[in-house]
Each structure stands twice: as C-alpha cells, then as structure tokens.
Amino acid sequence: xxxxxxxxxxxxxxxxxxxxxxxxxxxxxxxxxxxxxxxxxxxxxxxxxxxxxxxxxx
Length: 58
What we know:
Layout: H1 5-24, H2 49-54
C-alpha cells in the first residue's frame, strides 16, 4: 500500500459518511446513498510540484 494511502482512504470515507448524514437530515429525505468515484484514477502526476516536494516524492 502506498505511503499514507490508508489515511487518505479513511478521510474520504469519513467525508462520504458526513455528506450522507447531512443529506439524510434534510426534510423529506429518508435515505441517501453516497458513492465516491475517482475518475480518472488518482496518480502522483496530479500532484503539484509543491505537494510532491512536501511529501518527499522529489
């Protein structure tokens, strides 16, 4: 597993759960389904040079 990947997955899933909760708090909403889709799949080329430097990829 890539360094930090488990933490990033945890953050994304936590945000999805928060979004679901807030949607279900809306009037007339009984249940919500939230799907997180990364398309195109994320890769290091999407990072800024500053981010790569900060994370030690350069």
